[in-house]
Amino acid sequence: METLCLPAHSVLSVVVGSRAYGLETEESDVDRRGVFVTPTRLFWRLVKPPTHVEGPLSEQFSWEVERFCGLALEANPTVLECLWSPIVEHATPAGDELLAIRRAFLSRRAHQTFTGYADAQFRRLDPERPKWKQAMHMIRLLLSGLHLAHHGEPLVRMDAHRDRLLAVRRGELSWDKVTRWRSELVAGFDGTGVLPAEPDRRRVEEYLMSTREAAL
């Protein structure tokens, strides 16, 4: 009987987090995210296979390809950044094809998701005792989304902003300066930018169908 086994069914594994952003310190973990393809026959059972799996490595999380595509079409920031990670550790032909169609997932919905995720992080911060690492990643998310809105791809490597972001992490920028930076970035999302109104769902569906057929 066929079963799901990672990493045997993995088609893509990338490094995300601080090491992908260029914001790592000596204590930083290696965060990995990936995509796997479930053998198609497993969907014929009464009990459906999982949509995501943790491990087998520490700090590793993978989505089943259909779940990944659905989240990417919804402009989930974490998922979209996986498609532009500068550190690809493993990719099969199906993984390479997924990377090749990554722009098909893009739409102006990303304006709302990136700013929404960042706003949720901001609301959890206490101005009196802010968690500076969280504040840094809130700003980083806005930088990534703003670059996506204006240039058509998320900004993953933060080299141009590294010193200032790390200063936020160390608590060297005042809360007022952080909130002012945040406001400036949010204001930059005004207008339509370069993203299409809707993603290319047909292209994504064609990819998903061909991947399912190959997994029979």
Give me a quick take on this structure.
This protein has 216 residues and is of the alpha+beta class.
Top keywords for this entry?
2 domains, Beta Polymerase, domain 2, 216 residues, alpha+beta, globular
Task: Explain how this protein is built.
- With 216 residues, the protein is α+β, with helices and mostly antiparallel strands.
- It has two domains: 10-105 and 198-214, Beta Polymerase, domain 2 (2-Layer Sandwich), CATH 3.30.460; 109-187, no CATH class.
- 45% of the residues lie in helices and 12% in strands.
- The chain has nine helices and five strands; from the N terminus they run E-H-E-E-E-H-H-E-H-H-H-H-H-H.
- A hairpin with a 5-residue loop joins strand 3 (52-54) and strand 4.
- Helix 6 packs antiparallel against helix 7 (162-169).
- The model has no long low-confidence stretch (mean pLDDT 95).
- InterPro entries: RlaP.
- It holds the Pfam family RlaP.
- This is Nucleotidyltransferase.
Structural class: alpha+beta
Query: What is the number of E strands?
Result: 5
User: What's the number of domains?
Assistant: 2
Rg measurement, Å: 19 Å
Question: Tell me, what's the shape?
Answer: globular
How far apart, in Å, are the first and last alpha carbons? 13 Å
Q: Which CATH first-tier class of the largest domain would you pick? A: Alpha Beta
The portion of residues assigned to helices is 40-55%
**Order of SSEs:** EHEEEHHEHHHHHH
Low-pLDDT residue spans: none
CATH topology of the largest domain: Beta Polymerase, domain 2
Question: How can the largest sheet be summarized?
Answer: 5 strands, mixed
Number of helices: 9
- Report the β-strand fraction as a percent range: 5-15%
CATH architectural group of the largest domain? 2-Layer Sandwich
Mean pLDDT, as a whole number?
95
Strand order of the largest sheet: 3-4-2-1-5
